[in-house]
Design goal:
Number of helices: 12
Order of helices and strands: HHEHEHEHEHEEEEEHHHEEHHEH
Strand order of the largest sheet: 1-9-8-5-4-2-3
Radius of gyration: 21 Å
Number of strands: 12
Structural class: alpha/beta
Shape: globular
Helix content: 25-40%
Length: 384
């Protein structure tokens, strides 16, 4: 095999994106401006079903604003899958509430429904499912559980644009969540560089999020600079946050959003190539979305089986030695120092076993066939 460097991820940024960001800079609007307003509108139109969108500077900000708008306060409990990035849990603590971790379903890698039911207490206020790697959670079952206990659903859909649960796009009201947080971080299925959005059908949730995303000011961040009323005429009604999205980031996002279906098709084609080439190796391949649903394929995660000739850590080291970037998604939160006190006396056997075996392979829109074949050849050499 001829040596080749294949990164874990490479962004798909073309001349159209560069021109859009340059035009935003030349316009004089560097912070939130007309591109940010247009991006919100275009994202709402893409999701459909009367979606209301609030663009912010990260999915973490969107999650925080979502919990705040849903009324979570100190002393409440929020159910969080242990298999997720720390941001999903940390925003719960921002509000003084307690994250309650649940184990994962081994088939879908999303939260386990039986564990969810067992974790509900009189203090529970919100369920935060994670559409892990882009696999859509069973939103019908989640909505049934939430409604039976009088709970709200805040989707962590950082991996999930443009996943669909049935015919409903995750992030749209039809999918069944009360609110959804999307991510446009650099390695996501589309990017604004750094950025995110909160989506909802509830005008009050959207109104609260818009006020709180910029210091609790009672005028919309863009309206203050376009209304005939002077920009300094406003009131501060809450101690809010600094979560607004810049116009340069939004300009990038507008171009990327127009390509989201092409990006998903590119990822899906590479997934099919991996699936076919790796099927006979001692690997558990990632689950596909059920019939009638769509997977965004943000990540391609395999699990090294017990009978493999090398274990997970050795496989990662050997791939790295061959110039192939990998990652691990994720070490479960209950294993992390800051979250261990929230998991005392409870076990998470599925997530623990998964973590010992999982490795995320390179998957990105600009990945060439030669790069993917190099990764496949290395895996076959090490595991065949």
């Amino acid at each position: 095999m001829s040596p080749m460097n294949v990164p874990f991820f490479r962004p798909s940024i073309g001349e159209a994106e560069i021109e859009a960001v340059t035009a935003a800079m030349r316009s004089g609007w560097l912070t939130t401006g007309p591109n940010a307003a247009a991006f919100e509108t275009e994202l709402a139109e893409a999701l459909g079903d009367g979606t209301l969108t609030v663009a912010v500077n990260s999915a973490t900000a969107a999650l925080h604003l979502g919990l705040d708008a849903l009324g979570v306060v100190a002393g409440d409990e929020v159910i969080v899958p242990t298999l997720t990035f720390t941001a999903t849990a940390e925003v719960v603590r921002y509000l003084g509430a307690t994250p309650v971790f649940v184990d994962m379903d081994p088939a879908t890698l999303c939260l386990d429904m039986a564990a969810l039911e067992a974790a509900i207490t009189p203090k529970t206020r919100v369920i935060m499912p994670v559409h892990f790697a882009g696999y859509p959670c069973d939103m019908v079952a989640l909505r049934r559980v939430a409604d039976s206990h009088g709970l709200k659903i805040l989707d962590d859909a950082a991996h999930a644009l443009p996943s669909q649960a049935g015919n409903a796009t995750i992030g749209s009201p039809a999918a069944g969540a009360d609110a959804t947080a999307l991510s446009f971080y650099a390695n996501k299925t589309m990017t604004t560089g750094e950025g995110g959005a909160l989506t909802t059908a509830d005008p009050e949730i959207a109104r609260r999020a818009r006020v709180m995303r910029l210091h609790g000011i009672d005028r919309d961040v863009f309206n203050r600079f376009t209304d005939v009323k002077a920009s300094w005429i406003y009131d501060v009604v809450e101690p809010g946050f600094k979560y607004n999205l810049t116009d340069m980031a939004a300009a990038l996002g507008r171009v990327q959003l127009r390509q989201i279906e092409a990006f998903r098709a590119a990822r899906t084609a590479r997934v099919a190539r991996y699936d076919a080439a790796l099927a006979d190796l001692p690997l558990t391949l990632p689950p596909h979305a059920p019939d009638g649903s769509l997977h965004s394929w943000h990540l391609y995660i395999v699990q090294v089986q017990d009978d493999a000739p090398v274990e997970r850590n050795t496989l990662i080291d050997e791939l790295n030695a061959r110039g192939i970037g990998t990652s691990v998604h994720y070490r479960p939160l209950h294993q992390m120092s800051v979250w261990k006190p929230y998991s005392v006396g409870r076990t998470f056997p599925v997530a623990d076993a998964y973590f010992e075996r999982c490795v995320t392979l390179p998957l990105f829109m600009a990945m060439t066939e030669a790069e993917q074949e190099y990764v496949i050849a290395a895996l076959r050499e090490l595991l065949g």
